UniProtKB/TrEMBL annotation:
The keyword Repeat applies. Its EC number is 7.1.1.8. Its main location: membrane. InterPro entries: bc1_cytC-su, Cyt_c-like_dom, Cyt_c-like_dom_sf, Cytochrome_c_Oxidase_Subunit. This is Cytochrome bc1 complex cytochrome c subunit. The keyword Transmembrane applies. The cytochrome bc1 complex is composed of a cytochrome b (QcrB), the Rieske iron-sulfur protein (QcrA) and a diheme cytochrome c (QcrC) subunit. Residues 49-128, 147-225 form the Cytochrome c domain. It comes from Agrococcus terreus.
């Protein structure tokens, strides 16, 4: 039987198959390029760089008290799990690093920039999960109406006034410690204090006081900042102690002065 002669003709579907393969390959390449372009590696690299910078800052300035790996020492508590919120509060209120050992850290001008504090916060947050720095939405008190301010005042009286005074003027505690005043305090630091419970303060997590309720408390404290005492001179808003002292010194002192003046007059 004679061999079949090759004609060189393609199968009718060959061109269509090649066209489909080409389109699929081109589409796959386009998707791959788009995925690479949209992967946004910069934020991940930035986060790693920030944490690395924070680690260097931490080991140079904080490790002597808190340990080389933030595990704590006899002179400083462990920072594992405290989160970036605690770092931002302690560093940006100037409480850390402490100026000297004492019953509690005192507020002063911060020793680091906000960027440096954020870097150290990123490093501490990388060690273990912890409270994050509050968002702008959580701190936006412009959305709180008068009813919300009133609710914030009630929440403050129930949860905070026994230490900070109903007017946020602060108060004395035991062993040389004290609750600081809450006048003209940054909203982020008020929120972070509730979230992390610095020093003698209890922790008010989102199960105790919700984010909306925290914002209402902040709105109430800002209301106090903007509205001076309607009763006149507030005497430091320290309640019966300062009021009684005022009466004792000036009231009784005035009575004694008038009595002396009257008895000194000739008959």
């Amino acid at each position: 039987m004679a061999a079949r002669k090759k004609t060189g003709r393609r199968h009718p579907l060959a061109s269509a198959a090649l066209l489909i393969i080409g389109l699929v390959a081109a589409g796959g390449a386009s998707v791959a390029v788009g995925s690479v372009a949209n992967a946004e590696p910069a934020p991940a690299a930035h986060t790693q760089a920030t944490a690395a910078e924070g680690e260097a800052l931490f080991r140079a300035n904080c490790a002597s008290c808190h340990g080389i790996d933030a595990e704590g020492t006899p002179n400083g508590v462990s920072l594992i799990g405290v989160g970036a919120a605690s770092v931002d509060f302690q560093v940006m209120t100037g409480r850390m690093p402490m100026a000297f050992q004492g019953p509690q850290a005192l507020q002063r001008d911060p020793q680091f920039t906000q960027e440096q504090s954020d870097a150290m916060g990123a490093y501490i947050a990388s060690l273990a999960p912890g409270p994050a720095v509050p968002s702008e939405e959580q701190l936006d008190t412009s959305v709180v109406d008068e009813e919300g301010v009133a609710n914030g005042a009630e929440l403050f009286r129930i949860n905070c006034a026994m230490c900070h005074n109903v007017a946020g003027a602060g108060g004395a505690l035991t062993e040389g410690k004290f609750a600081p005043h809450l006048r003209d305090i940054d909203a982020a630091h008020i929120y972070e204090a509730m979230l992390t419970g610095p020093q003698n303060m209890p922790v008010f997590n989102d199960q105790n006081i919700s984010p909306d309720e925290k914002r209402e408390i902040i709105a109430y404290l800002h209301y106090l900042d903007e509205n001076p005492s309607v009763g006149g001179f507030d005497l430091g808003s320290l309640g019966p102690v300062s009021e009684g002292l005022f009466i004792w010194i000036f009231g009784l002192g005035g009575i004694v002065a008038v009595t002396v003046w009257l008895t000194s007059k000739p008959n």
